[in-house]
Automatic annotation (TrEMBL):
UniProt keyword list: Oxidoreductase
Listed Pfam families: Flavin_Reduct
Protein name, UniProt field: Flavin reductase family protein
Enzyme class: oxidoreductase
UniProt source species: Streptomyces lancefieldiae
MF term (GO), any: oxidoreductase activity
Domain Flavin reductase like: 27-174
rRNA-binding is among the record's keywords: no
InterPro entries (UniProt xref): Flavin_Rdtase-like_dom, NADH-dep_flavin_reductase, Split_barrel_FMN-bd
The protein's Enzyme Commission number: 1.-.-.-
Length: 180
C-alpha cells in the first residue's frame, strides 16, 4: 500500500512543547470510546485502548496508538494483524482487567473471558462488545514513545448491545444510545 508522508512546519525551526502532565490533564477532558485490542495465534494478547479512531472508508482503515514498551506493541508487530472489540457500557470489569499490567499474559489472560477467534485473524473478539473489527496491519509510524498502527479492516461486525463505554476525566462513563 502506498503512503505519503508530509512534514508540516519543517521550515519553522524548533518550537516549544507542552508539559506531558499538562497534556494528560487536558486530554482527560476529551471523552473517548473504549476498546480492547487483541492479537491471536502464538502472539495472543489483549490490551485496553482508547487511542483508536477510523482513518478511511475507502479503503476501510482504522488506527490505534500503542506504547512501544507495551507487550501489545510487539504482539501487533509480530502478528501483522489485530482485532478490535468496541466495548459495551456493562463491560467495565473486562476493560479494567485488560488494562491491569499485573494480569497473566498469553492464553491465560483469556481463560475467564468469553471470546471468539476472528475468522480472518484469529484475534480474540470479546463476547458482548458493541462491535468488532479485524484488521491487517498496513503501516506503522513511530512517534515519541508510541507507534501509530494503521490497519486495513478486513471484517466489521456490529453486535446487539446498546450503550457504549466512554472514558472521561479519569472515569468510565455510559454513553446512552438514542431510543434506549
Amino acid at each position: 500500500m502506498d503512503s505519503v508522508t508530509t512534514e508540516v512546519g519543517a521550515d519553522r525551526g524548533p518550537t516549544a512543547v507542552a508539559d506531558p502532565a499538562a497534556l494528560r490533564e487536558v486530554m482527560a477532558r476529551f471523552a473517548t470510546g473504549v476498546t480492547v485490542l487483541s492479537t491471536g495465534g502464538e502472539h495472543i494478547h489483549g490490551m485496553t485502548a482508547n487511542a483508536f479512531t477510523s482513518v478511511s472508508l475507502d479503503p476501510p482503515a482504522v488506527l490505534c496508538c500503542v506504547g512501544r514498551s507495551a507487550v501489545m506493541h510487539e504482539a501487533i508487530t509480530a502478528a501483522g494483524h489485530f482485532g478490535v472489540s468496541i466495548m459495551e457500557a456493562t463491560q467495565e470489569d473486562v476493560v479494567r482487567f485488560f488494562a491491569d499490567k499485573h494480569r497473566p499474559l498469553g492464553p491465560e489472560q483469556f481463560s475467564r473471558i468469553d471470546w471468539t477467534p476472528g475468522r480472518h485473524t484469529g484475534a480474540p473478539l470479546l463476547t458482548g462488545a458493541l462491535a468488532w473489527l479485524e484488521c491487517d496491519l498496513s503501516t506503522a509510524y513511530s512517534f515519541g514513545d508510541h507507534s501509530i498502527f494503521v490497519g486495513q479492516v478486513v471484517e466489521a461486525r456490529r453486535g446487539s448491545g446498546h450503550d457504549g463505554l466512554l472514558f472521561f476525566d479519569g472515569t468510565f462513563q455510559r454513553a446512552v444510545a438514542r431510543g434506549a
